[in-house]
Amino acid sequence: TCACVVMNYSTCFFLAVAVLFLETVVIDAAPKHKNVLFFAIDDLRPELGCYGSKQALSPHIDDLAKKSMLFERAYCQVAVCCPSRTSLLTGHRPDTNHVWGNGPEQYWRMFTNATTIPQYFKENGYISIGMGKVFHPGSSNGNDDIKYSWSPEGLPYYHAPSEKHYGPGNKTSLWWAFDGFEDNQLPDGQICDNAIMVLQELRKNKTRGDERPFFLAVGFHKPHVPQYAPKKYFDMYPPVDQILLPENPNVPDGMPDIAYETWSNPRRYDNTKMYFEGKNCTATPEKAYSKECQFPDKAAKEFRRAYYASMTYTDYQVGKVLVQLEQHGFAEDTIVVLWGDHGWQLVSIFIN
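Request: output the structure for the sequence above.
Response:
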């Protein structure tokens, strides 16, 4: 599962319902020409305060959820970024789009004539602007579906100039707290600043007589691995030894083979690979789930704390954008949608 929100300053929902609900809202709201602010958050689990988490700090998303409709039973099509996002944004199943993974697959428009959500708004009188990770990057989405989904005024499509950061010595770490960093020294803070700048420009356009409503898609990267955030967000959480481990450490009875995942990505970083060297943990799914191939408790707690910190970092970026939405007088005329593409396996036997 994955986490999500829509408002009239509007609503909170889970991924699979997003398309149907958004289409319903658009139809109902069309005579009033509501704006749409569309947040996409990468690998966001329903481990938020509004879903009853005991440790996650998500004050701004929680506040949005209080004013919104919270969807508690929605499911993604495929628990991978590209097929999940493409399916939601087109309304077509992965088998129709021919997008099943994150690899360099053919552009889905080779197989279907789907109209994307931002394209629909663009073709119906809206100015459509996107930034960050909305579509999964790469050839299978036509490099952000530039040709079809976004208005010329919103181009070039914005990606943060600081796409990647590393731990000390330029070595990759699965988690890292950047001491002394401001939010906008990392990509999601830069995306947040760009969203605020766009809202300012949209307000100026209104004062100049441009009455078009807007569709603004803001795609944040964290809490996708690696879990990087300014240190102040790590400091909001208790020490590592107080972080809770998953309640259920066991593989579900009868889980089909296709649901197994060797979870090779988190095992390859410089601060995790030493736990698995020489164990051949990615040889088979069964081997991956063996006891010797599990994260040690301390590392698992560090990983979970880092996930929470990077999620809270993104939560604060959402909050900043929502403040500006209100300050520029758009809040009462804007539907806000917030969704996560497919959740994340947070060392709870790697299948949550």
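Residues 18 and 88 are 7 Å apart (CA to CA).
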